[in-house]
Amino acid sequence: MTQKEFSLRTGISTTTISDWRKKNTNPGSDKIMAICAALGVTPEYLLSGVTEDSDRGRNIDYMVIPKGTEERELIELFSSMDWLEREHLLEYARRAIEKKSESGYTDRTEKKSMVKIAEFCDIEVFMDSEFDGNPTVDINYLDDNVQGSLQLQEGRIMGDFSKYVIPVISAWYEEHKSLLIKMWNNHKIEMIPTWE
Question: What does pTM read for this prediction?
Fold first, then answer.
């Protein structure tokens, strides 16, 4: 194919095509699709020489994780750890998933309106941002994969929490009771500072 024919097929000027050859530069991304259409090839083939039926690059798996997400933060934190810290974190994650599958655990906090408001002693607390029903928060105890709830007016804890976990939840509740009820009544969720 001559440069003139290539220019006619792509709509790219012959001087631009000539400059690519003379200056040994590559076309800009805005020209790639026109070139692919003119040559009858895919962008992948044009850029890498790999055809769709090729095995080259097939074993590589990519994941795009948006900035500002918890997943991105986790990966960035993981990348900054030394190898031993990474091993501990991976082992913890594997054990958590294993316990979850063995216990028949179902995550009620997948509801989009649930917002995490506190985390302490491997306990997570979620409040419903739609403020439906009686004033309650959902409680997850991560170590045992136990879920339950806490009624905000009475302080009653529901769920199969161990005798060691219930006093911790009760103590946290007593310290934050007025704030929790205020949040529910005002329909305004805020993060409760770390508590030990």
Answer: 0.46
Order of strands across the sheet with 114-120?
114-120, 123-128, 136-141, 146-151, 157-159
DSSP character string of 94-144:
HHHHHHHHHHT---GGGSTTEEEEEEETTEEEEEETT--SSSEEEEEETTT
C-alpha 152/C-alpha 162 separation (Å) is 20
For residue 19, the 8-state DSSP code is H
CA dihedral of 29, 30, 36, 37, whole degrees rounded to 10: 170
Q: How would you write 131-192 as a 3-class SS string?
A: CCCCCEEEEEECCCCEEEEEECCCCCEEECCCCCHHHHHHHHHHHHHHHHHHHHHHCCCCCC
Contact 127, 137 (CB under 8 A): yes
How do beta strands 123-128 and 136-141 pair? antiparallel
Sequence letter at residue 78: F
Q: Is 105 exposed, middle or buried (0-12, 13-18, 19+ CB in 10 A)?
A: middle
Beta bridge partners of 141: 123, 146
Q: Which long-range contacts (CB under 8 A, 24 or more apart) does 176-180 make?
A: 176/118, 177/152, 180/127, 180/135, 180/137, 180/152
Residue range 6-47, pLDDT digits in tens? 888 888 888 888 888 888 888 888 888 888 888 888 888 887
